[in-house]
Request: fold
Amino acid sequence: MFNLSKKSLIRILVILGITVVLIDLVFLDRHSHFSSIGGLTAMDGITGFYAILSFFGTFILFKVAQFIYNILSASEDYYHDDF
Reply:
């Protein structure tokens, strides 16, 4: 359907990422929801906190999936002697 090259997909993702960061910096009122002190003293009040949190969460999920794949996958010649 869409014939996009790898280079153009990376450009689109970078542009979308920059756009989201700019929206976070310019338009959103960043304040803490979990601290009575408020402001930038709490972790969730830091600019980009949720982006960093989701990056690390995705990274950990990817590494766990790789680990499970390595445990459960069969070797390439696993079914070779069956026939």
